[in-house]
Amino acid sequence: MKTVLCYGDSNTWGQTAADRPDDRYGPHERWPGVLRDLLGSEWLVIEEGLSGRTTVSDDPVEGHEKNGRTYFKPCLQSHKPLDLVIVMLGTNDLKVRFNKPASEIAMGVGALILDIKALAPGHGGGLPSILVISPPPIRRDLKGWESVFDGAYEKSHLLATEFERIADAHGAYFLDAGSVVTSSEADGFHLDIPAHKKLGQAVADWVTNSDWPART
Q1: What is the domain partition of the chain in residue ranges?
Q2: Are 79 and 38 in contact (CB under 8 A)?
């Protein structure tokens, strides 16, 4: 059995784009669940999503636990040995309170890649493969969230280029979610159910059709 860790924010956790019970999509609706269903019983797909999670920054409003790096190392150690680590973060770093350019958000992802390499949570103390997914750009109409994400629309369209550059520099793989899905019109920055399905399918296609083990 191969093990993949999906590490992300609300769009990995399954935060709904519209009102639903518990504000969360079901296990088979979230993209990691779609991935799990498509890969089948030979794979263990672990969901590690948290709403509001950043790449490497404490959140002065929502709390230090939103810092993606704080939990990342114990998370890797808890779930090892891992064959593949998927990181999809960056949307929350676009918030105006962090005042980050797209290049610095990408550097945060690079820091997480370095943490994976330092811990080597693969089989036999080796490195798992790493897939960086850039989140889809946010929309201009954020349904009341415009002040929180002031200036983020333009930056969100730069993330894919910056993330790909960082992934390539660190020997990681890259997938642009924006080439597959768009953020929901319901709130402008979360994924709806069809988008989760498409993203899960795209990741499953990548896992089954690419040569990803070659970089381990």
Answers
A1: 2-210
A2: no
CATH topology of domain 2-210: Rossmann fold (3.40.50)
pTM of the predicted structure, to 2 decimals? 0.95
Strands 43-49 and 129-134 turn out to be unpaired
Condensed to tens digits (0 to 9), the pLDDT of residues 156-182 reads 999 999 999 999 999 999 999 999 999
Q: Say yes or no to pLDDT of 215 above 60.
A: no
What are the C-alpha distances in Å from 173 to residues 17, 18, 60, 84, 193?
28, 32, 32, 10, 25
Residue type at 161?
A: T
Give the amino acid at 22: D
- CA-CA distance, 146 to 136, in Å (whole number)? 17
Angle at 152 between CA 103 and CA 87, to 5 degrees: 55
In the numeric block, which tokens belong to residue 51? 């709403």
Cβ atoms 43, 4 nearer than 8 A: yes
